[in-house]
Amino acid sequence: MHVRRRGNVFELKVQHKLLPKTFYATFPTEAEAREYGGRLEALLDRGILVDGLIAERSNDPLLFGLIASYRSGALPPARDAILAVLADELAGVQLSAVTYRWCEAWVAQLKRERHLAPGTIRKRVSALSHALEAHFRRLEQAWANPLRLLPRGYSSYSREDAAELAARDLAPRRDVTRDRRLDAAEEGRIRSALAGERRPDRERSLAADPAFAMLFDLILETGMRLREAYTLRVEQVDLASGTINVAGTKGRDGAPKPRQVPIKPALRPLLSDYCRDRVGLLFPFWGGDRAELARVTAALSRRFARLFDYAGVADFTEHDLRHEACCRWVTLRNSRGGWMFSDIEVCRIMGWSDPRMMLRYASLRGTDLAARFSE
Predict the structure, then answer these.
(1) pLDDT digits (tens, 9 = 90+) for 132-164
(2) Which residue stretches of the chain are H helix?
(3) CATH 1.10.443.10 residue spans of the chain
(4) Angstrom distance (rounded) from CA 71 to CA 95
(5) H/E segment holding residue 12
(6) For the residues 353-360, what does the mean pLDDT come to?
(7) Which of 129, 163, 322, 355 is most buried, judging by how many CB atoms fall within 10 Å of its CB?
(8) What angle do CA 309, 294, 254 make, to 5 degrees?
(9) pTM (two decimals)
């Protein structure tokens, strides 16, 4: 493989014994050319020669090159991770092969061969769909995306899918809806564990860590996402106005989506004491290197899992704290006994543009609803 600059583009040159002639292609950046060339050589080394490989790249590219080009821009971390997997899984597929029949067959393969959950299938379809549409936007060409034509419920397992899986002693996968709330006793046990109190049936306690305890309080009382919380800087906490200026991590194509989150009265003195004499990052878990974000997120998620397990709340997850926080915002009362915030205001606090997200996160207890009869 050889890459060289030619004017405003970079030319990729690949020679291989499986190729009848030298393969050339041009790319807008050197990184894209090397990414495409590396994956192409990996395919050829495995003996994979795609029909029409020598055709002009601009007319009929391989999906792994198209995906690599899309990933070179700013993307949400979750979508980028999915596309990294798809680049390998769909390495030998050319764009011309992506018809509606191919889409149906691909979805069937994800269910019958890979046995993926419906939600995982939808995420893969969505990620590939974004990559394909970005490709044609760059070319300024009109194109009907066959992935968008898949019928409603395409990711659910059909009777035919179930029959195929039954032959392998497998059952259809279904989406799991999280509806887990934190009761007062469970929260008390978690706070005891954070304070370093030892359980009677354990030899040791968890080490007390004020920073980790503050992170727990911050997520529980604001509903911030884990990455939004641990990447906060001290100057983003405005105690004078009673708000936290959150950068946001779920903007379009990975762009920041800033919002202001109000600080509850009970949280305000805790944050005031914690922020005193601190500068820079609010928490010590991340050093500021964006390449380390995924590792830090995974490490903190595991730490929360250990905390909840020690506290005897083993079926609780860090993300459940965000669900719990949403419910607390929804049911918060003002001094006159009325609801503190409207649904739209709660969506703003949580960082959602689509109010339907409330239906996923507002896991209200029956006791909360029944209590209103006596009001």
Answers:
(1) 999 888 877 778 899 999 999 999 999 999 999
(2) 30-45, 63-71, 77-89, 100-112, 118-139, 159-166, 184-194, 210-222, 226-230, 268-275, 293-310, 318-331, 343-350, 357-361, 366-370
(3) 184-374
(4) 17
(5) strand 9-14
(6) 80
(7) 322
(8) 125
(9) 0.70
